Amino acid sequence: MFFNLPTLLTWARIVAIPLIVGVFYLDLAPPARNLIATVLFIVVALTDWADGYLARKLNQTSSFGAFLDPVADKFLVAASLLILVQMGRVGALVALVIIGREIAISALREWMAQIGASRSVAVHMLGKVKTTVQMVAIPFLLFDGVLFGVIDTHRWGTGLIWIAAVLTIWSMVYYLQKALPEIRAKAR
User: Fold this and answer.
1) pTM
2) Would you say 184 and 113 are in contact if contact means Cβ atoms under 8 Å apart?
């Protein structure tokens, strides 16, 4: 279904991306921009959980929704990482690893689907953990301050984004290993 509630939430996630980025171009004090962008990111990231839950609960799953949901996640993460690189809060290497992996695995999944082997690169728990760590690290880095007077979000976000980068590489290796037998079989 192209326009059901879960899919509309996914579309909303895509539409909200320029808002998150645009906040950093507003004539506001940096702490205000950071807070607004952080809140927007968290709300938008929660729609990822909500659209999946509602799709299952309302029996409104669709192949289009299954396609669009990870695309929205990748756009959200890539856009956020790029703004964080621009602001000097994330190193370009970390962003390159995370964004590069997303492109590579998306291409691998597309190719595997074309050769009828999409099950070999189905979403694995490791990929879900990687995404969760990214979705926690990014708002910490967007906030870039002290939370509740004790949590240095920049330090925590930096540590978590490096963990996400390691998980990114690990999950990419996992998916490539799962696909390798199919790749070898088709190369013959």
Assistant:
1) 0.89
2) no
